[in-house]
Design goal:
The protein is mainly beta and 185 residues long. The protein is built from 1 helix and 13 strands. The strands form 5 sheets. It has a 4-stranded antiparallel β-sheet with strand order 10-9-12-13, with no helix packed on it. Strands 4-7-5 form a 3-stranded mixed β-sheet, covered by helices on one side.
């Protein structure tokens, strides 16, 4: 029986109830706690994460790390040492404590590519402005690849390195300038 307060293995009650008189040799049924009822969770997408980061995410959700298998073949999609497959798949309902099996890539992963951000005009208002560029790609989500101050009225261009498919976001003073522009394929 699940019980929110009693730890697993604790006797919750007996049948017949405690204090009852019964003949010697009578059967007594113990109702044992299974602990709190496991919470339903959705299995996260762990692909692209390092093994350590995948473990942290599983721990955060109350899921267990299952078998960890090293891929037998190379991957052009996932870097060496990152999760390239999992079972159960992302989005699958699971209960806290369920195990997730991971397959770790041998790499080498996707090659580096370049996108050019051209002719971003910095506001000409007499103040310096901070320009930030974030990239979400095979290396991670919202990686900051550029963060510098620019003089007012200047025109800014920059080459951005990315891996695989992803998006690029540019901010001027924390305000989106270009949001989620697809990177060239």
């Amino acid at each position: 029986v699940y019980d929110q307060t009693a730890p697993p293995g604790t006797v919750l009650r007996t049948l017949p109830p405690a204090g009852s008189s019964v003949p010697q040799g009578s059967e007594v049924v113990l109702i044992i706690s299974r602990g709190p009822e496991p919470k339903a969770v959705e299995v996260p997408d762990l692909r692209g994460l390092s093994l350590d980061d995948a473990k942290k995410e599983l721990d955060r959700l109350g899921l267990a790390l299952g078998e960890v298998v090293r891929a037998t073949e190379q991957s052009a999609e996932y870097f060496a040492g990152t999760v390239m497959d999992q079972e159960p798949k992302a989005g699958t309902p699971a209960l806290a404590g369920d195990a997730v099996r991971l397959t770790i890539s041998r790499g080498p992963g996707p090659p580096a590519r370049t996108a050019i951000i051209e002719r971003v005009t910095i506001p000409n208002d007499g103040q310096k402005h901070r320009v930030r560029i974030l990239v979400s790609d095979a290396k991670g989500k919202n990686r900051e690849v550029y963060n510098r101050m620019h003089d007012p009225g200047t025109v800014f261009s920059n080459a951005v390195t990315f891996y695989g498919q992803g998006t690029i976001s540019l901010y001027v003073d924390e305000e989106p300038y270009l949001l989620n522009e697809p990177l060239p394929t």
